[in-house]
Write a structure and sequence with these properties.
heterodimer, A: alpha+beta, Uridine Diphospho-n-acetylenolpyruvylglucosamine Reductase, domain 2, Uridine Diphospho-n-acetylenolpyruvylglucosamine Reductase, domain 3, Enolase-like, domain 1, four-stranded antiparallel sheet, 12 helices, 14 strands, 34% helix, globular, B: alpha+beta, Alpha-D-Glucose-1,6-Bisphosphate, Chain A, domain 4, 3 helices, 31% helix
Chain lengths: 287, 146
């Protein structure tokens, strides 16, 4: 199908983009890499009247290490994140997630800002973004806002972004100690979207017990979530196979799982338990 | 696809909830994106609804029919709609049970879809329906306590 008519606007500065978004609030969509929005427009599931292409705004694509955190520009492509040296060393689960997205063409065009603003319930990034306690920096007519990842993903395809705001940057704080992290995924064979994806970030203390453990699950519920009960059960424990298995039984507690032709709700919840455990195991191996 | 859930109306007795849920004008006040809801027969309504979840949006026209009414405890509901993103059909049961502080509403049903929304949106239909149902009941609860 061919998309419904729309007006294409390509601002050259962030200020101009925000003004346009404010002017056409509710009727405009931001175009970043276009790898979620354009397919939906071609199917006429999305029919924005205005498309504001931020691709010509300079300096929105970068990965910088700065004052104890990594700053990732909204237009940074999945490919750049997958191959970034500093992300590979410090935020491995995020590099894993980027490497799992779509195919190489999608990874070369699709962007982290676009992906998280779209908030597909089966997107790969949210699980890792949650375990690293990232902050989403947004820009709107009233200026910048810093939204913690835990408050950013509100529901299916719904974020804390206002209609007149765009994602500018993602901040990921760096821990001073050694953190191991991993993101593992069971993908739907045709689309590559996560039926279940689990990210884990762990730290061990001197005695070999888990001093910090964070687990994020995507693809299972309407939006990505932290497996808080598993984290609480594992904190302070030595990660034996038995301890991990028992704790991860709680990975889908309290979650109303999605269901479709590819995977029932129960199956998704079962995958959440298994992938949570495997993600923690790989994260520990990487320490 | 099966959809099932419940909603607690604290401090609102079943007759009040029943009254709201079976009156077209009041349903329209709470149905997200509802642009038109007109009665065209006994328990039968024409509807136009702008449906939107994130970037996905579309205008649906269709009908709602309430039948098998057993005041104030149970009714059946049939919904069908079609629009640019495809068509959606649903069949369900709504049950109201008195709860010490108010009413516990339980809904269960089956939703099917066709067209573009089914080919790409299938995995999201259940979640999207739940989101709209939840918004609807929250609004009803707010209006009844106001």
């Amino acid at each position: 199908m061919i998309a419904q008519n729309f007006e294409y606007i390509a601002p050259t500065s962030l200020g101009e983009a925000v003004n346009l978004l404010q002017k056409h609030a509710g009727r405009a969509k931001i175009l970043a890499g276009g790898h979620s929005l354009i397919p939906m427009m071609k199917l006429r599931l999305a029919a924005p009247e205005f498309l504001i292409d931020i691709g010509r705004i300079p300096e929105l694509a970068y990965v910088k290490e700065d004052a104890g955190k990594i700053r990732i520009g909204a237009l940074t492509t999945h490919y750049v994140i997958e191959k970034s040296d500093v992300i590979g060393r410090r935020l491995r689960a995020l590099a894993d997630a980027a490497g799992f997205i779509g195919d190489v063409q999608v990874r070369n065009k699709g962007t982290i800002g676009g992906s998280i603003a779209h908030a597909d319930p089966a997107a790969d990034y949210p699980a890792s973004i949650l375990v690293f306690d990232a902050t989403i920096v947004t820009l709107g007519p009233k200026g910048e806002r810093q939204i913690p990842a835990s408050k950013f993903f509100v529901d299916m395809m719904t974020t804390a972004l206002e209609p007149n705001e765009l994602v500018r940057e993602i901040h990921v704080p760096l821990k001073s100690g050694k953190t191991g992290s991993a993101y593992l995924k069971m993908a739907q064979k045709a689309s590559g979207f996560a039926i279940c994806g689990a990210a884990a970030a762990v730290e061990l203390d001197g005695s070999g017990a888990l001093s910090n453990v964070a687990i994020g699950i995507t693809g299972v519920g309407s939006y990505a979530f932290r497996a808080g009960k598993v984290e609480a059960a594992l904190k302070g424990q030595k990660p034996s196979a038995d301890t991990l298995r028992k704790a991860c039984e709680k990975a889908g507690d309290g979650i109303i799982a999605l269901e479709d032709i590819h995977a029932s709700a129960d199956y998704r919840l079962d995958l959440a338990r298994i992938y949570a455990r495997r993600a923690v195991e790989v994260a520990i191996d990487r320490l | 696809m099966k959809i099932e859930g419940q909603f607690a109306f604290d401090g609102i007795a079943p007759p009040a909830v029943w009254g709201f849920l079976t009156e077209a004008n009041r349903i329209a006040q709470c149905l997200p994106g509802c642009e038109k809801l007109e009665q065209n027969g006994e328990g039968s309504y024409d509807m136009q609804m702008r449906f939107g979840v994130g970037a996905i949006s579309g205008l649906f026209s269709g009908s709602i029919r309430l039948h098998g009414l057993e005041p104030v405890s149970e009714y059946q509901m049939s919904v069908s709609g079609s629009g640019t993103p495809g068509f959606v059909k649903g069949e369900g049961t709504v049950q109201l049970t008195p709860d010490d502080t108010g009413t516990l509403l339980h809904y269960s049903g089956d939703v099917s879809a066709g067209g573009p929304i089914a080919s790409v949106g299938q995995r999201m239909i259940g979640g999207a329906a739940r989101m709209i149902i939840d918004q609807f009941f929250k609004c009803v609860s707010r209006k009844l306590t106001a």
